[in-house]
Design brief:
Strand content of chain A: 35-45%
Distance between the termini of chain B: 68 Å
Structural class of chain B: alpha+beta
Shape of chain A: elongated
Order of helices and strands of chain A: HEEEEEEEEEEE
Largest interface: A-B, 49 and 61 residues
Oligomer: heterodimer
Number of strands of chain A: 11
Radius of gyration of chain A: 19 Å
Largest sheet of chain A: 6 strands, mixed
Mean pLDDT of chain B: 83
Strand content of chain B: 15-25%
Shape of chain B: elongated
Number of strands of chain B: 30
Strand order of the largest sheet of chain A: 1-5-11-10-7-8
């Protein structure tokens, strides 16, 4: 095998390893939602190429209010779904849309756009 | 309008007493009037209280020094009625401190007619309960602004204007994408031709290989394609960057990578040709970059169009809302925006007009077209006391009604919200897709790298070129979008389809389970039957006339409180009989009634009563048995000591129950009837509608248990019943179908709500569920197969055998088409038509 092939294969394998590590192995830390004076666990979520923050940690048994602000026009992100709570909302560009629900069971729940291009996780702590 | 203050009340006189007029809901019987009057008089400070049953209003005269509206309101509430109050929620601006709360609350509290006010700092809004008969929203708001704060209405989330804004945003997005496509297409056509000048006789000589002229042409193409990347393809690159920030990858990542790699390679060839060992590497692929970007843009634009059609149903629903209402205020009719209609307002509706909000007719009658909400195509006759639903259309007569539900509480608003939530839910099969698509995009990138390595290591010469093409094609052909859109698009269409037919499907899960059902349990009363007994038979004996018998029986029964009595009274009055006054009346529990009417001694009751009074019944007994076998309740009537006849009442079967049950059976479902009645009555009804299996004498609390018993037979069980009484059974069933009526659609917390109280809805719901799930599977299989076949071909698996290697341009075309196909297939669902008993094949 000539040297250039070895270089290509080594670089290729390194890239694959990087992809595996970057997308699957790194566990990002979540953001803990703040409790507002109204008793809601509130979190602002920016919708732009994804959800920021995309991991939100809340407590069980307290109502949660996620305020989504969409700052892009790609049609994929015009809806956000929280299937576990049977909630969804359309997000007009530039407006803040609140989604409220009550997490009763601890666990990890997903929120995502309709096609699943953008994903975020809601971690309900016991 | 002058605003009366709380301390002085309305229309106070010199003596210092105040009078107020309050609408009261829940007043149904004459005895309620007395109860409420005494409850009001018991309030300290109230001098006089009269309640008018016809107008459902209470007039209270009170001493404002001793009593306030709040106390009076409280008295009405504790007596078990509801004062016609309105609740308004609006946003408050300029709240900077916690003390603002008390200030605003005080300002609101001292406004006449305001019963309670609470201000929330967190959401910066006020919730005010007030009496619309005393004050109005404008006065409430002016109290806030005079306290020094700004008032803004809470935005209506589902107003037609919001929909307009949304479709405008889509239109803008569409136009942008089309502009991007046209620019890309124009540059693309040019680059495609100029990338292969040797294929074109005229160009071959102008741009020979390795000529300076060709190099300059390439350089020009490089700049032009960079312009395409910056203009038409920018969103892929920014999207990819944003996704990477979130450690995720999506379609944008793949397109950006594919086109980016092609562009960078071409530019290296252009600028540093020296680093390549031989001239066979010296080709540019700017056409790949440009054409792929253009085609994907076009695909996205088409997707957007198709998606707009998918959610047409919800737009239709939202568009149904009326914009204005004509209400009576201070005796004058005035047109106001529908948002300002308050509970308790009297609304005037003329023929041909849209009914703005939910309410109850107080004057007039008409035929109303409710098809837009219930799916029922025939107009429904309505008269005083009947419920009207907002957004339905008044056909023939003029009438006035009292608004009972407004704004987000109306039936239509609830329907819209339920449909939106359902469309946003997930079909359980989607979970597999979610797992797959979580790994999909990075996996495609890995595949592309592997493909590059394999082709570079083992591929034919020039290996680098082949490897590059394979990698780029792989990145571009993969279509995570088709996979991601497969179920949501069908679900949105299916749920919308249901809504347009008066069927509210709560979630994707309900939709998926409904097609698996094997057994349907139907509650008898109110589901198969009307749930309201009516007079069915009048038999006479001893030479009596039917009318006379019914007139006397009706008169006697009018004094009775038995539920069946009302059916006889109504039967008599609808036949136009004037019922005489009863002279004496005696109810004999468990037996019947004896009374004296127009000098006759009248006995109405069961066999036991007749035996006790030694009345010879003759062949009436046989008739009674026959009637009972038909599921009716016969009652003997004796006049002046001799048998006179029988009146029978029964709960009658709804017109289309039989048809619907037949359709269910033909669809392969087992149909079971459940009833609290005895076996004989139950069987009689079952025979009429063609049901073989009857669960009779089921106590209300045992209904859920009986559903479970059927489930233990290993069947998927659907339960159809009314949403309130049968709630536990509906919850126990795999799919609960609640028969909703009129405006109470929201209270039924079941999987499927049938707005029109007909069993036909169950048939349609199951058909829609089957059609939608078939569509979902088609889409899923299509998307999976596309990716599973497309990726290996892109990787060049066919090359060793057939010498076929996919061009990245074809890959882009295929990718765009696959996602458009998914949406087009989902839209195909809209052509679904209900099939009824006669059309369902055995």
């Amino acid at each position: 095998m000539s040297w250039d092939r070895i270089v290509v294969d080594v670089v290729g394998l390194a890239l694959i390893a990087f992809i595996v590590w970057f997308f699957w192995l790194v566990k990002a830390k979540g953001v803990k939602a703040a409790v507002s004076s109204a008793g809601y666990q509130e979190q602002m979520v920016l919708v732009k190429g994804g959800y920021t923050p995309d991991i939100i940690v809340v407590e069980r048994g307290k109502p949660v209010r996620l305020n989504f602000v969409r700052q892009e026009s790609a049609s994929c992100s015009e809806m956000v779904l929280l299937p576990a709570f049977n909630k969804s909302a359309t997000l007009p560009e530039g407006q803040t849309v609140a989604v409220e629900f009550l997490p009763t069971e601890p666990g990890e729940y997903e929120f995502a756009c309709q096609m699943g291009m953008f994903r975020g996780r809601l971690i309900v702590e016991p | 309008m002058p605003i009366p203050s709380l301390t002085t009340g309305v229309g106070n006189d010199a003596a210092g007493s105040a009078r107020v007029e309050l609408p009261v809901a829940g007043l149904t019987c004459p005895s309620c009037v007395r109860a409420l009057e005494s409850a009001l008089r018991a309030v300290p400070g109230v001098a006089r209280a009269t309640v008018n049953l016809a107008t459902r209003r209470a007039f209270v005269e009170y001493d404002p020094k001793k009593a306030g509206l709040a106390e009076i309101h409280e008295a009405i509430k504790t007596a078990g009625y509801r004062a016609g109050t309105a609740t308004a929620r609006f946003a408050i601006q300029g709240m900077t401190c916690a003390s603002c709360v008390t200030k605003i609350e005080q300002a609101l509290g001292s406004t006449a007619g305001v019963l309670s006010a609470s201000v929330r700092v967190g959401t910066e809004e006020a919730v005010v309960e007030y009496l619309p008969s005393v004050t109005d929203l404008a006065a409430v708001k002016s109290a806030v602004s005079s306290a020094g704060y700004g008032v803004a209405d809470a935005p209506a989330p589902m107003s037609p204007s919001a929909v307009d804004a949304e479709s405008q945003a889509r239109e803008r997005e569409y136009r942008t994408l089309m502009r991007q496509w046209w620019f890309g297409a124009a540059v693309g056509t040019f680059t495609m031709i100029m990338s292969y000048p040797w294929l074109f006789p005229g160009l071959r000589d102008v741009f020979p290989r390795e000529s300076h002229r060709l190099w300059w042409m390439w350089a020009f193409m490089g700049v032009a394609s960079l312009a395409v990347i910056l203009y038409s393809g920018r969103h892929f690159f920014t999207g990819a960057r944003e996704a990477l920030k979130h450690r995720s990858a999506n379609m944008h990542t793949l397109i950006a990578l594919g086109t980016g790699v092609a562009w960078v390679y071409s530019s290296i060839v252009l600028l540093f040709p020296g680093i390549f060992p031989s001239s066979e590497f010296l080709d540019v692929y700017y056409d790949v970059t440009v054409v792929v970007i253009a085609l994907v843009d076009l695909g996205l634009a088409m997707e957007l169009r198709a998606k707009g059609r998918t959610s047409e149903a919800i737009k239709k629903l939202i568009g149904l809302q009326a914009k204005t209402a004509r209400v009576v205020r201070d005796g004058a009719e005035l047109d106001i925006p529908v948002e300002e209609v308050l509970v308790g307002d009297i609304v005037v509706v003329r023929p041909g007009e849209k009914i703005p909000v939910d309410g109850e007719i107080v004057e007039g009658a008409s035929a109303i077209d409710e098809s837009m909400v219930t799916g029922e195509s025939l107009p429904v006759e309505k008269r005083v006391g009947d419920e009207v639903i907002g957004a339905t259309i008044n056909k023939t007569g003029a009438f006035r009604f009292r608004a009972t539900k407004v704004g987000k509480d109306t039936a239509l608003a609830n329907i819209i919200r339920m449909v939106q939530d359902a469309q946003g839910s997930k079909v359980p099969v989607q979970r597999i897709v979610d797992v797959v698509s979580g790994y999909f995009t990075p996996a495609v990138a890995i595949l592309a790298i592997l493909g590059f390595m394999i082709w570079y290591t083992f591929g034919p010469a020039p290996a680098l070129v082949y490897a590059l093409i394979v990698a780029v094609t792989t990145l571009i052909i993969a279509c995570p979008c088709a996979l991601g859109m497969a179920t949501p698009m069908s679900l949105t269409t299916g749920v919308g389809l249901g809504a347009l037919n008066g069927i509210l499907i709560r979630s994707g899960e309900a939709l998926q389970t409904a097609q698996k059902l094997q057994t349907i349990i139907l509650d008898k009363t109110g589901t198969i039957t009307h749930g309201k007994p009516v007079l069915t038979d009048v038999l006479v004996t001893g030479g009596r006339r039917e009318e006379e018998l019914l007139r006397l029986t009706g008169a006697v029964e009018r004094s009775s409180e038995h539920p069946l009595a009302a059916a006889i009274v109504e039967g008599a009055t609808t036949r136009g009989l004037a019922l005489p006054v009863v002279e004496t009346f005696n109810a004999i529990p468990g037996h019947g009634i004896e009374a004296r009417v127009e000098g006759h001694a009248v006995l109405v009751g069961n066999l036991k009563l007749m035996h006790d009074r030694k009345i010879t019944l003759g062949d009436l007994e046989a008739h009674a048995t026959r009637l009972a076998d038909e599921g009716k309740t016969p009652m003997y009537v004796a006049i002046d000591g001799g048998a006179a006849g029988i009146v029978a009442v029964a709960d009658t079967v709804k017109e289309d129950s039989k048809d619907a049950i037949q359709a269910l059976k033909r669809m392969g479902l087992e149909v079971v009837m459940m009833t609290g009645d005895n076996e004989r009555t139950g069987k009689a009804i079952a025979r009429q509608v063609g049901i073989e299996r009857v669960l009779a004498e089921v106590l209300p609390q045992d209904k859920a248990f009986n559903v479970q018993k059927l489930q233990l037979e290993g069947k998927h069980v659907g339960m159809v019943g009314d949403g309130i009484n049968d709630a536990p059974a509906l919850a126990q069933a795999d799919v609960g179908f609640a028969i909703g009526t009129g405006t109470d659609v929201a209270i039924a917390a079941s999987d499927v709500t049938l707005i029109k109280g007909s069993l036909r809805g169950v048939v349609l719901a199951i058909q829609i569920s089957r059609a939608t799930m078939r569509n979902v599977y088609q889409n899923l299989v299509g998307a999976f197969v596309y990716n599973v076949l497309g990726l290996p071909v892109a990787l060049g698996i066919l090359y060793p055998f057939l010498g076929i290697l996919l061009s990245p341009l074809l890959a882009a075309l295929a990718m765009s088409f696959s996602s458009v196909t998914v949406i087009a297939n989902a839209n195909r669902l809209k052509r679904w038509k209900p099939r009824l008993a006669s059309e369902v094949l055995a």
